[in-house]
Each structure stands twice: as structure tokens, then as C-alpha cells.
């Protein structure tokens, strides 16, 4: 049988596992996405404790698919304006997700790679 320590995670373990800052951690608690199991006794326990399965579920929800427009512009040397233009014209599909407390556009890396290759073929 698993011990309580293996079933539960401390505040620092949760932040490390989710790879989030203390600020983001506090926001997730305020929004009710992270609920400690020892809300009343956390001072005696030394830390908030969270169920491991709930933290793993939250990690799946927080994962983003693709890369941000900024990451794409840096990786493929394309201006943000050009990426926005492709999205507006329907040449590039994007998903809008909450990321780092901001609404952010995400694109699939394969789609950008294909568009860049098409442009390179036209230019040669």
C-alpha cells in the first residue's frame, strides 16, 4: 500500500512537477484549479498537500499544443506581422489558449515549417 507521502504532493513538489512559478501557483489556487486536502491544518503539516492524481490531471490540462507566434517568429526568422497575416488569410491555423495568464495564439510547428518550405521553393 502506498504511503501518504507517495499519494500526496507538497507545494514545492507541485510547483516543480508543473514547472510553474509561485505566482502562477497562487493563481491556480485562487481559481480553484488546485485544491489542497489540508486547507485547515497546512500550518501544522508544514505545507499545503495536494492529491497526486489531481495534480497529474491538471498538468494534462495546462499543457499547450504547438508553439506561440513569438516562438515561431524567432525559430523560423519570420515576422510576427507575417504570421498574423497568414492566420488572417487562412493559410495558417491557430488555436487560442490561456498561457501564462494571457490569451495566446498557438500554431503547429509542422504547419509553419511547410509554409516556410513553400516560400523557399518559390524564391529559388
From TrEMBL:
Gene Ontology MF: a single term: DNA binding
Annotated keywords: DNA-binding
Highest rank taxon of the organism: Bacteria
Name under which the protein is recorded: DNA-binding protein
Organism: Bacillus pseudomycoides
Amino acid at each position: 500500500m502506498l504511503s501518504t507521502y507517495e499519494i500526496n504532493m507538497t507545494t514545492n513538489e507541485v510547483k516543480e512537477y508543473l514547472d510553474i512559478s509561485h505566482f502562477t501557483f497562487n493563481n491556480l489556487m485562487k481559481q480553484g484549479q488546485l485544491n489542497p486536502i489540508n486547507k485547515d491544518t497546512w500550518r501544522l503539516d508544514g505545507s499545503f498537500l495536494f492529491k497526486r492524481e489531481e495534480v497529474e490531471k491538471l498538468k494534462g490540462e495546462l499543457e499547450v499544443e504547438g508553439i506561440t507566434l513569438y516562438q515561431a517568429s524567432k525559430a523560423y526568422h519570420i515576422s510576427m506581422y507575417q504570421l498574423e497575416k497568414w492566420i488572417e488569410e487562412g493559410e495558417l491555423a491557430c488555436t487560442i489558449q490561456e498561457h501564462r495568464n494571457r490569451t495566446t495564439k498557438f500554431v503547429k510547428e509542422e504547419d509553419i515549417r511547410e509554409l516556410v518550405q513553400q516560400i523557399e521553393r518559390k524564391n529559388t
